[in-house]
Structures are given as C-alpha cells and as structure tokens.
Amino acid sequence: HGGLPNKIIEVDPNMVEMFLGRIEDPPNPRMDGSDMDSGFRAIMFTDLAGFTALTVQLGDARAMDLLRRHNEIVRGELAQHEGREVKHTGDGMMASFTSASEAVAAAVAIQRRFQAHNYESPQEQLNLRVGATVGEPVEEHGDLFGASVQLASRLCNLAEPGQVLVDDALAGALPSGKIALSD
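^ thats the sequence. predicted structure below, dont judge the formating
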C-alpha cells in the first residue's frame, strides 16, 4: 500500500498471543545452559504442619512472621540447590529441580534449618513436612501439572512433621551410595 505509519497503538501482549501465538520463546529452564530439556523434574512440596492452629494461637500477624521465616529458609535452600519455586501454597511451597540429588539435598537442608530454628526458638516451633518424587510434569504458564505433581503433594501430606518422604521413583533416580535413605 506504500503508506507510512503515522499512529502507534499500544496492544495488550496477551491479546496478541491469543491471535498469533507466543511472541517470543520462553526462557530455558535448564540451569546448565544446555539447549535440550528432557522434561524430567523432581517435584517437592513443603507444608507447615499445624499452621492453622498456630495461627489461631499466635494471631495472624505473628503467624505471618513465621510463614515469612518458612519462605526465607525454603527459598534460600532452593537457591543453593538449583531449585525453582513453582508456587506458594499458603502454608507451604511447590518447587522443581532438574536433579533428583539436588532435590533430596535441598529437602534435607531445609529440614535441618527448621530443626535449628526450633532449637533457637522453642516457643515458636515450626514443624515442616516435605514430600518429593520425580516425573515429567506438564508446564503451563510457569505452573506444573500431572501425576508427579499430584504424587509429590500426596507424599507431603503423608509425611510426619520433620520428615522428608520420597517414593521409589525418586530413590531410584539417585546415584547409588551418594544419599542414604531409610525405609
């Protein structure tokens, strides 16, 4: 048509994606910079056991302080062990790892930090449950879905306070002799 644009109209990127598809490729979730992503993930859930009762006992403001402590501990260990926070679940967190070993190491480190917190603050005990498994979840809009996610959540619910509960699939994905597991 030969005409030059004389007016710029801002459009919502979500609307553009609805009609044309994504505008740019999503960032590579691999920490090692490689181009191939197998889709394999270790999925971990944390849950503060008895947090509702603790909120009633301490009040909302103090309970939120303790929840922030949970977030600080978990996020710190995720950063140390190449984990990614997927979402916050209210009184816990869902995380993913590209390495089963790093997931277990993070879970153990998290529980140790909670033990240290409980030793230093006996009047404000935080009892954490952790559940983890491996699989190939489906990712959509930064969230993960699928059987492995559901199983990790169930394992977390079954774990005792202070326990890390993993299934046979995660245990089988660990290098032999590197991490000691008990039945």
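Strands lie at 41-49, 83-88, 92-97, 127-135, 138-140, 143-145, 164-166.
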